Amino acid sequence: MAVLEILKYGAGILREKAEPVSEVNDEIRVLVKDMLASMYAAEGVGLAAEQIGRKEAIFVIDVPVEEACGVAMPLVLINPVIRELEGEQCGQEGCLSFPGIYIQVKRAEKVVVDYMDLDGQPATVEATGLLSRALQHEIDHLNGVLLIDNMSAVQKVAHAGKLKRMKAGRL
Ligand code: NI
User: Around ion ligand 1, which residues have CB less than 5 A away?
Assistant: First the structure.
């Protein structure tokens, strides 16, 4: 198990589309352990494989139990696909690839996601609130979509200095 460096905004792989995992083998199990260790070390609630430089369509989430919608944490999603989005919520969102930046982002209130679990079995998670927000945020990562894409022009101006330094690898 290894705590890996989390890539910041500006790293090219964060803009790529993740590749589906065909089989859950030892390599994938090690990757997931490393992702969990890296997420906990950075005190995040979610981490996508691209954030540690890997292209597999995998992310991990661990939100507090009162926000977990009855779902056991941590949650490991392989090849996730959104089946349903419903309603609307607006709340504060951050990202380990954008350290120190928190913005208000509009998301669906409820989400249903189909995925493959760590045993290679098909599974479904249904969530509202913070867990729903985290699922939508991490699925964005697998599509190369980042926090900055959800920023308004005003938010971009407010964080312009930090974003510029990040992109230049100086933060
Ligand atoms: Ni993120």
Answer: 95
